[in-house]
Design goal:
187 residues; alpha/beta; Rossmann fold; six-stranded parallel beta sheet; two-stranded antiparallel sheet; 8 strands
Length: 187
């Protein structure tokens, strides 16, 4: 069990990159769905005045210390082993670890061309990466029918990790479908 420290109402996990990777790998090995939030200070500040967003953070199975101010607060609370688990670094580390195990990745979010560009660049850096899909949703709340189509599309791709890159307001309003597939979702 990884300690959580309350920072202005958001329970952030006191972890370092190695612990985050081990936890994510454990979930993928168990094929159990989990949701991870990388959390810089501005996310905590947004949650301070937004109970719905704070609830999302506090229900995540892993809330990483993405910003150095969060790391410093965790260290001040006695969590000396903590290091920054920065989103882009976590992405590369998960992908690199997953190469050995054949993890499949799906990239969801961003402007229409961004997920494809990201997949291409990652493929150049990691030629054996398994990208099973990309999708950029419209920048608005999805209809129920759209959510069902997207959910089906992602489930058919059968990723081990769903990378979600959408803004916090879209997170709050259900900007991505609830997936029935057992996968680890990092946002």
């Amino acid at each position: 069990m990884i300690d959580r420290v309350n920072i202005l109402g958001v329970n952030v996990h006191a972890i370092n990159m190695g612990q985050a990777l081990d936890q994510i790998q454990s979930w993928i090995n168990d094929q159990s769905p989990h949701y991870v939030c990388v959390t810089p200070a501005h996310g905590v500040m947004d949650a301070l005045n937004d109970p719905e967003l704070r609830n999302i953070f506090n229900q995540c199975e892993l809330v990483t210390p993405d910003g150095m101010s969060i790391v410093w607060l965790l260290k001040l609370s006695g969590q000396e082993h903590v290091n920054r688990v920065y989103g882009p670094d976590l992405t590369l580390a998960v992908i690199e670890r997953g190469l050995e195990f054949g993890w499949k990745h799906y990239f969801y979010g961003g402007a229409p061309e961004i997920p494809g560009i990201l997949a291409t660049r990652l493929n150049e850096r990691f030629p054996s990466i398994k990208v099973v899909g990309t999708f950029s949703p419209p920048f608005r709340t999805l209809s129920d029918d759209e959510e069902k189509v997207i959910e089906h599309m992602i489930n058919q791709a059968s990723p081990d990790v769903l990378w979600v890159g959408i803004s916090r307001p879209k997170h709050k309003k259900g900007g991505w479908p609830s997936l029935s597939r057992n996968l680890t979702s990092l946002s």
